Amino acid sequence: MAAILEIRNVDKRFGAVHALKDVSLSIEEGETLALVGENGAGKSTLVKVLTGVYQKDKGDIFFMGQKKEIRSASESKSLGIAQVYQQAELIPELTVAENIFLGDSSVHKNGFLDWKELFKKAGELFEKYNLDISPYEKVKNLNVARRQLVAIAKVLLQKPKLMVLDEPTAVLSDNEVKILFNIIETLKSEHVTIIYISHRLEEIFTICSRAAVMRDGELITVLENRNLTKADLIMHMLGKKLEAMFPEKDASCSDKVIMELKDVSTAKITGVSLKLMKGEILGITGLVGSGRTELARAIYGLDRIKSGEIWIEGKRVKLRDVIDATKRGIFLVPEDRKGEGLVLIRPISENITLSNLKTITKRFFCSRKIEKTLVERLKHDLNIKAESMNRLVLSLSGGNQQKVVVAKAITARPHILIFDEPTQGIDVGAKFEIYSLLCKLKKEGHSIIVISSEIEEVQGLCSRIVVMRHGKIAGEIRENLEDTESILNLMYRSEAV
């Protein structure tokens, strides 16, 4: 089959940073190609050149056999190139249908918006792709996963010839991933070409025919998905073998209870009781919407507790807001890093130290020298890829943004750390770095809760696993944590207790 896209010797610099180095790649029409690499490898830059967000410095792009200069997003869209971003970019106050047809003239009649046609077409689009979402629902009422599906539907409306999916399953449950994969199969049958970016390597083996590997701005190789192993793919991505996905686990912890929840209920969770021991990493898993994030929000004072008690170090406490929680030594790394974890228009250094300004204060003034020492150490420990810590956070890749959120949490120096999806959108090498850091914090006496939709993650890190379902605790696993079937049974079929 003929190539729909040819990239020839494309180069891109940002000042001293050489983001793309003489990249050449050919993609066939109707192919689903994986684009993989570490955070900062150049994947996002390459895609942004294709979608008109950035302009290449040199090189050529051929689309459907013709040389093209893609100078803007509108030019890219007119060619039939579309992208679904890692985090859905929607307007919360508008309905689902309004978001999908925003800027689309096909639902206008005689110069006026035809509301009936708008909702009808949105319903037909959802029906075609088996999306169980009401067109009349406001986006602000949807969870993160359903917002992502709406963002995908918005792009599908454009009927693109080439579609870029950037970490599309990062916030999706297993059932929603199946829906997405069914959509991809439908698109394949319609000869739509897909560039698929994901750090969940098992997905690549399932849906992609080839994998293009990038490292340090270069295209290292393109691998056929025939007898390709996970170890081989990781070796090409990192330039070395990764001996283990997780550091050696230390399941030991103190007998001291650092925090206890007794029959805690909010608008989203019911009767949750659990204990967190000093120096423990406790795992919480469950499907999207199971109540795991809502539990974290309750502990951190973001959601009002309607009934029940929280005890910290043997004392009953009232956590009415985030200030109360931080005073008690609790810090949350949220799932939505852009919306809740970072100030995107401020420098990396300021984001890291914002959680605890006392650490850089000297005689009532912020010391830039102390700040620089602190942030440079965390940059080294977490391998944050940025030529300067004075760069704005919004300029970083998604994975490096996540590392900044983790650095911010460490700076807060809490006794209890809650990580909600700590490695979402992060490559395998960076995951190991964060896992190692969590183990180091545990050894230093910190108590940690890891909330994750990746069962392998809580199995590899945690000494106990709590499974949530329908806003309640479905069960707790203390032994045989490797028994994935038991966890899945609790997630899907077991009645909550």
Layout: helices, strands, pairs:
Elements: E1 3-14, E2 17-28, E3 32-37, H1 43-50, E4 58-63, E5 66-68, H2 73-79, E6 81-84, H3 96-100, E7 108-109, E8 112-113, H4 115-128, H5 144-156, E9 162-166, H6 174-189, E10 193-197, H7 201-207, E11 210-215, E12 218-224, H8 230-238, E13 257-265, E14 272-277, E15 281-286, H9 292-299, E16 307-312, E17 315-317, H10 322-327, E18 330-333, H11 337-341, H12 348-353, E19 361-362, E20 365-366, H13 368-382, H14 398-411, E21 416-420, H15 428-443, E22 447-451, H16 455-461, E23 464-469, E24 472-477, H17 484-492
Parallel strand pairs: 3-10, 3-11, 6-9, 9-10, 15-22, 15-23, 18-21, 21-22
Antiparallel strand pairs: 1-2, 1-4, 4-5, 7-8, 11-12, 13-14, 13-16, 16-17, 19-20, 23-24
Describe this structure as you would to a colleague.
The protein is an alpha/beta fold and 497 residues long. The chain folds into two domains: 3-238, Rossmann fold; 257-492, Rossmann fold (3-Layer(aba) Sandwich). 33% of the residues lie in helices and 26% in strands. The protein contains 17 helices and 24 strands. Strand 7 and strand 8 (112-113) form a beta hairpin. The longest helix has 16 residues, at 174-189. It is globular. 44% of the residues are buried.
| Terminal residue distance | 55 Å
- CATH classification, class level of the largest domain: Alpha Beta
DSSP summary, beta strand count:
24
Structural class comes to: alpha/beta
Q: Spans with pLDDT under 50 lasting ≥5 residues?
A: none
